[in-house]
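Hi everyone,

Forwarding the result from last night's run.
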Amino acid sequence: MKKFFSLVTLLVATTIAQAAADTRCVEMRTYYAAEGKLDALHKRFRDHTVKLFAKHGIENLGYFVPLGDNPERKLVFFIAYPSRAERDTRWNAFFADPAWQKAYKESEVDGKLVTKAETVYLTATDYSPVAKAESVGNRIFELRTYVTEPGRLPNLNARFRDHTVKLFAKHGITNLPYWTPHADQKGAVTPPDPANTLIYLIAHKDEAARQASFGAFGKDADWQAARKASEEKAGGALTVKNGVKFVLLKPTDYSAVK
């Protein structure tokens, strides 16, 4: 029997490959657990949800919590479907499953586990690495969101495609999937501007390695030249002020991605 969460993962790809054939719809979901309920939420995923997702053809990609303090009690995870059209069909089948209904009701006997849920639908960029079902071991992950000036997302994608991903790899940063939100995601991302948003995952050995890698990357003459040329071509900065956000993540014990 296949491992229920090993179909496709967000793990390191050793090469940067074209992802044009990757037409899957990836769903990034963020759950905010009720106070004192995060462990119970993890238990429900560990014991029931991931198995039932797989049963209904929903691919378990990766499950993460913020590294360090987690005052909002967040769980961030990525699941996938063959297409956006299949999303509702498979999700509805999962939700109607008697096994899920039983697990859901039993887990919430003492109160709701989730106070808020956020969803963003994503499509892989053409330069996104091909993800492999592989657990490397102890690593930290970084979820990064870039919001560009209006109309400059193609410029940003070109810079990543032609320069950034290669320079990341040069400096020991593992490139994982790169996505753009679906066009009808108005209000689903922050800032709510899907037409000008890039979301991606990278990985590092640890926090010290992350700091060293980004330090070397920022000083790299090739990066500085690429950044300057891309901004001159676009007529200014590619991202809006404070338009780059990141959060460091660690995988849960039930995530195939490690």
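The chain has two domains: 25-122, 134-250.

Cheers,
N.
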